[in-house]
Amino acid sequence: MPAYLARRLMESILILLGITLVTFILLYLVPADPARQIAGRSATAETVQNIRDQLGLNDPFFMQYWRYLTALFQGDMGRSYLQRAEVSELVASRLPASLLLMVAAIVTELIFGLTIGIVAALRRNRPADHGLMIFSFVSISAPQFVIGILLLYVFAVKLGWFPIGGYGSFAHVVLPAVTLGFLGAGWYSRMMRSSMIDVLGQDFVRTAQAKGLGKARIILRHVIPNAILPIIAMIGIDIGLFMSGIVVVESVFGWPGIGQLAWQAIQRVDIPVIMGVTMISATAIVLGNLLADLVAPMIDPRIKTK
Amino acid sequence: MKKFLLTGVAGLALCGQMAAAEVDENAPMGGNMIVTYKDDVATLDPAIGYDWQNWSMIKSLFDGLMGYEPGTTTLRNELASDYSISADGLVHTFTLKDGIKFHNGRDIVAEDVKYSLDRVTNPKTRSPGAGFFGMIAGFDEWSAGKGDGLSGVKVIDDKTVEITLSRPDATFGHVMALNFASIVPHEAVEASGEDFGREPVGSGAFKLAEWSPGQRVVFERFEEYHRANLPKLDQVTFEIGLEPTVALLRLQQGQADVPGDGIPPAQFLQVLNNPAQKDNVIEGGQLHTGYITLNTQMAPFDNVKVRKAVNMAINKDRIVKLINGRAVPANQPLPPTMPGYAEDYEGYPFDPAKAKEMLAEAGYPDGFTTELYVMNVDPNPRIAQAVQQDLKQIGITAEIRSLAQANVIAAGGEADQAPMIWSGGMAWIADFPDPSNFYGPILGCAGAVQGGWNWSWYCNKDLDARAAEADAMTGEENAAARIEAWKSIYLDVMEDAPWVPVFNEQRFTLTSDRIAGDSSLFVDPVHIPVNYDYIYSKDAK
């Protein structure tokens, strides 16, 4: 196990290094000059040149990349070109909000997804099953922007149950979490349904029935715990999905997370901020996957860590 | 309203009314106002901030020597009690008012003026506004990093500062009213370093009370503000991160007073048709022109007949309808509210048949294929499609290149890349209400360089010389002749037709029932979306 963990950690670091390189190359190739974004439209060519010199944008690619990496290993993510603030501070001030939203969304999608999947499996091929599967199909296909605005209009504006966007209390987190969790709920309900149907057909379930156990007991003690295993492993992978959804959902609900920060940075070619946000999201995704792989054998001994 | 972010242009939608506004000095004091924005505030450092969102915020936090009468484009003394110019137009002497203080309680002295001007022009500050101060003596040396400040700025005593120019410049008063010329306390700048933009200390009507990134920025009244009975409001809260659509919902529920990003285009007609809201919509002009650049150094647009033909092919009325009438058709570079606008000039008529004839005369009877660059944010791609259809009528096939703002700007700055660019979302709003501001960077030779903003790559040395002459005409007695000189420059530009001027955008501001003030304050030329200092709350006693 420790050897496995060490190997996986090394792999993760290599992956992250690869991501910094790819992102850096992409930003280097983009045909937009950050110095001109900083200089503004009234600047002279000399001013732009001076800014390029100060930021080291005239240096060869590998020199720029090396400088970024060495600073990064010392914990320095640089300063935003446009806001002039430390990137680490900008990201740190946004991260808690994004993490809170992500946890709330995972809880939401599990509650909805698992419940729907279980009910659909137990009512297999009956109207309830068909109805729920249509719902899950819609939730997978619907654009998050539309769902967000719709939920805002109905539950915040018309019914007044929740605030119209913003951040601060428990009431603020409900609608964005539901919007973000909606997509995952659709996936999980489908996976849970087929996983349940799988388990229901297995020998040990028949044995349990033969022993004369009550139906509720069989479902709760034997079927669900077995059916849920593959789902748990999925949550880690899900983090990648959230990172893309978070940009949209944060902008609809005015949620002060890193999605909002990333969006503005991209608009204005603020390279240090783009790099910082990419690094943080990549780290979250890599850690999520690692965690999923580590947790899976603990809850299901059939899976071995090799 | 359109987002002119980085280029932004500084917000300066300087609009219309040249006459002084009726500002109610006795309006009640107290209360608060909530303004919503989608984007977080980039910075509140007056040397750095150059987008239309932070431009007016900075105006309320900081003061310069000069400013504008509220709701107008009329210059007035701000921190200066007296401003005099020598006979040759080169020496400008400012005397500071008595009893003016920074938010930290310290008295403002002449040394602060020098410190602030040296700071904004210091190459290490990397200010996007440094170039505006090019007329001050010693600018070239200092901006190259030589010496220890602008040699042209001299402190005479605690109350007096003397600024010597290297050339007479009629726009200097406006330059000293720019945010970039705001007076900052050196001790606060030195204490905060690069973070001064998050911890601003100025002398404006409001001071910063709270900044929660991505959530809200709160301004509160500065009790020792140098103008009596101002500001009217105790507090202004900027709620950040709200989509314009969501902001509108908040306003309808009474949870916001002004949607800072304006009325979203998709909801524009709905708001105008809503009896409860339509009376709260205030319309004003702005110093903006949207245009199509024709690259005069790329064939076939190097032929003036081709450029004239394109000018006659574009149906501007249809484009204005496309954006729900939020603009007026244009026929010259200057917008109607800018001094120097030629009211009797008729421009090129919309006449596809004649355009086709002219194209044949130029040697393109069957038209040609070209590219039209456009920023990829609505409504700009739709406008580009309308232009594409109009060009098709005279046989020109234009392929649309719809890109992010920064990429279009980069393409325009290369001599041989973009044959045509629709300027929407990028250019051009004046930085200050003077006709010269529509020439240098976008039509003069200085802008026709790699990385410049003269995307037509139009360079007429004769007009450049006339422009320099016009700007040297300082003094009240020459003001009218100077405006006439500029007017004829722009009409001669149109003879060469480097642009198709398409429309001048109008500003539409929506407010709640809770706040009030003279209507000019809601379309204030330099304060977008509203003049925070003079608006008052009906809740105040």
At a glance:
Chain A contains 13 helices and no strands. Chain A is mainly α.
Structure overview:
Chain A has 306 residues and is mainly alpha-helical. Chain A has a domain at 94-269: MetI-like fold (Orthogonal Bundle). Chain A is 79% helix and 0% strand. Chain A contains 13 helices and no strands. Chain A has helices spanning 2-29, 34-39, 45-55, 61-73, 87-122, 127-141, 144-158, 170-200, 203-211, 215-227, 229-253, 258-267, 271-299. In chain A, helix 5 (87-122) crosses helix 8 (170-200), helix 7 packs across helix 8 and helix 8 (170-200) packs across helix 10. The termini of chain A are close together. The model of chain A has no long low-confidence stretch (mean pLDDT 86). With 541 residues, chain B is α+β, with helices and mostly antiparallel strands. Chain B is built from 16 helices and 20 strands. Chain B has helices at residues 52-61, 110-121, 139-143, 172-175, 186-192, 244-252, 268-272, 304-313, 316-322, 352-361, 380-393, 405-412, 440-443, 461-471, 479-496, 519-522, and strands at residues 32-37, 66-68, 75-77, 80-85, 91-96, 153-157, 160-164, 206-212, 216-221, 235-240, 258-259, 281-285, 290-294, 327-329, 369-375, 397-403, 420-422, 499-510, 515-516, 536-537. In chain B, strands 12, 13, 14, 15, 16, 17 and 18 form a 7-stranded mixed beta sheet that branches. In chain B, helix 8 packs antiparallel against helix 10 and helix 14 runs antiparallel to helix 15. Chain B is globular and about 70 Å long. Chain B starts with 31 loop residues before the first strand and ends with a strand. Mean pLDDT of chain B is 90; it is low at 1-20. Chains A and B meet through helix 2, helix 3, helix 5, helix 7 and helix 11 of A and helix 6 and helix 12 of B.
